[in-house]
Design brief:
It contains 14 helices and 17 strands. With 428 residues, it is an alpha/beta fold. Helix content is 38%, strand content 25%. Strands 7, 8, 9, 10, 11, 12, 13, 14, 15, 16 and 17 form an eleven-stranded mixed sheet that branches. The model has no long low-confidence stretch (mean pLDDT 94). It is elongated. It has three domains: 151 residues, 3-Layer(aba) Sandwich (Rossmann fold), CATH 3.40.50; 161 residues, Dihydrodipicolinate Reductase, domain 2 (2-Layer Sandwich); 84 residues, 2-Layer Sandwich (Alpha-Beta Plaits), CATH 3.30.70.
Length: 428
């Protein structure tokens, strides 16, 4: 007897799922004994259903899928936290298993979703919510379960990685890189979620919750995007032996979980430094396994649909065999979130300052005032007359002290002429 599927959302990923199912449905049954059948498709765009040859299955009301007693698995692929959340919760409440790629719902309402799934004895699978086609959630829940995970560090947003790659390799400005990413379809018309780090914050909240068995929500993640990064910063980093990436960090500490997203300078010899273009990579450290890295395409119809359909087939397998949900919520601990002010790392700080005597001495005095040790300082002329780039690379310092340094330097009369400085944290 076939496991019947209702699909909500026929955009890029939803269309990819339809195509995979049509292409490989017979293979799934022959190779794995899993007979899955798409019986309903819901979206606001009937033409999308027609494009994929499933117009006869179309409905514009998701409740017809929720209320269909024949449907075993509801696949939610519309995104956002409004209607999508309703679809997920109503499907679970109706006794359906759910597969979703929705990082926003899982990062903000994960506890509610997981609790309802447990209450109803149903599965909620969300591999595609992080890393697109890269398997990472399942390995954390299964293959690496014997480890105490100590840290996760990853490039989990393809849009910003493409932009930073172009800025670093070809000297494009931020605006030029964004415009190109939009033209190629890598960035949305409104790129806020990507360039301001919110997309990555949702993903690292999910990963941290699983890895550290303690609930982390998106609003608890320190988040800083790439808008202030320039081609000048990319070149300076390269000259110092670093690449600049938007990196999501989660680390277990004595004080709790440190979880953050921000531009990061990574040594060129580190594997993450060479993850370029739209690719993603997630670097996981466990006490038994040591260092592992998961790499692949993080977005697009194929990779994301691959992860979604992998979840569908796994849930279908469990239904066929009569297996109850294997791994539900594992957030059994309640660890504190370490405030960003407690972060200790190295910093790259670039000011555009007036080219006049006494500037270097004045700024150096402020670094000394807050006990922030400077490893190197370089001064380079700019195209603007009477202005220079003043670049500091610090030794390990506290976040709060560094911000005090920056604010005091900005307050100096007639010193900083280029607005707020570029600040990039350095991972060594």
């Amino acid at each position: 007897m076939a496991i019947k599927i209702g699909l909500v959302g026929t955009g890029t990923v939803g269309g990819g799922c339809i195509d995979i199912l049509k292409k490989h449905q017979a293979d799934f049954k022959r190779h794995f004994g899993i007979d899955v059948e798409l019986v309903a498709v819901c979206s606001k765009n009937p033409e999308q259903a027609a494009e994929h040859g499933v117009e006869e299955l179309f409905t514009d009301d998701y409740k017809t899928i929720i209320n269909n007693p024949e449907i075993d698995i509801v696949v939610e692929l519309i995104g956002g936290t409004t209607i999508a959340k309703d679809v997920i919760l109503e499907a679970l409440a109706a006794g359906k298993n759910v597969v979703t790629a929705n990082k926003a719902v899982m990062a903000t309402c994960g506890e509610q979703v997981m609790s309802l799934a447990e209450e109803m004895g149903k599965e909620i699978a969300f591999e595609a919510s992080v890393g697109g086609g890269i398997p990472i959630i399942d390995p954390l829940k299964h293959s690496l379960i014997a480890n105490e995970i100590t840290s996760i560090m990853g490039i989990v947003n393809g849009t910003t990685n493409y932009m930073l790659t172009r800025m670093g390799e070809d000297g494009l400005s931020y605006d030029e890189a964004l415009r190109e990413a939009q033209q190629k379809g890598f960035a949305e018309a409104d790129p806020t979620a990507d360039v301001d780090g919110f997309d990555a914050a949702a993903k690292i909240a999910i990963l941290a919750s699983i890895a550290f068995n303690s609930r982390v929500t998106m609003d608890q993640v320190f988040c800083e995007g790439i808008r202030r990064i320039s081609a000048t910063d990319m070149k300076s980093a390269r000259d110092m032996g670093f690449a600049v990436k938007l990196v999501a960090h989660a680390k277990r500490t004595k004080k709790g979980i440190a979880v953050r997203v921000h531009p990061t300078m990574i040594p060129l010899e580190h594997q993450l430094a060479h993850v370029d273009g739209v690719y993603n990579a997630i670097y996981v450290v466990g006490d038994a396994v040591g260092e592992t890295m998961f790499f692949g395409e993080g977005a697009g119809a194929g990779p994301a649909a691959s992860a979604v359909m992998g979840d569908v087939l796994e849930v279908a397998r469990h239904l066929k065999l009569g297996i109850k949900p294997i791994v539900g919520c594992t957030c059994t601990d309640d660890l504190s979130i370490v405030p960003i002010e407690d972060l200790k790392t190295k910093y790259y700080i670039r000011f555009v300052v007036a080219d006049k005597p006494g500037v270097l001495a004045a700024t150096a005095e402020i670094f000394n005032r807050y006990d922030v040790s400077v490893q190197t300082v370089t001064q380079k002329g700019t195209k603007a007359r009477d202005a220079v780039d003043l670049v500091f690379l610090t030794h390990t310092a506290e976040e709060g002290a560094v911000h005090s340094v920056v604010e005091d330097i900005l307050a100096l009369d007639g010193v900083v002429v280029g607005g707020y400085p570029s600040i990039i944290r350095v991972e060594d």
